[in-house]
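debug: dumping io for the single-chain case to check the tokenizer round-trip. Nothing else runs in this session.
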Amino acid sequence: VLGPQHPRSRGLAYDKKLLPMHRLDAPMTVLVRLIYASKVAAHFGPMDMHDILDKSRRNNIEHGISGLLILADGYFFQALEGDRAAVHATYARILKDSRHTGSVMLSSLEIEKRQFSGWSMGYVLSSEKNKPLFMSYSSNKYFAPLELRAAAAESLLAEIGAHARHLGGTETAT
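debug: decoded output
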């Protein structure tokens, strides 16, 4: 029998390992990582990338989302991390953006820890310096992220993120 002084009598759960007390009726959040790839639209220009990064970073901070956006061989390749509802709502907005076409969700996993924490939206542009890394995941002479299996997409993003952090770990990693 729970008395009025017992934490659970007020809808609170108490465990010595979980301090402070948490409400039993609070919505449970699940941390996820969603990875997608899409083709850059024909009308995409240099200012579009600046606009995407500026708006993404602002919105992602507001919604607790971290991630990494890659532009390589005419494709976007992106990871979004955060609360499941926030990540899926963000992806739904991305799907409506006319600056890309043919988006394919490559992976959507529950995760224990973010890979891109600290980056509201990291950015990597394919260059001669990092091209061998991209090509190590490609079956032909061009990077083709739409053909990646989920495990390969996860692995490639982890490698690119680690490489970018090694070079400086900033929101404008290259």
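debug: round-trip ok. Residues 1-24 have pLDDT under 50 and may be disordered.
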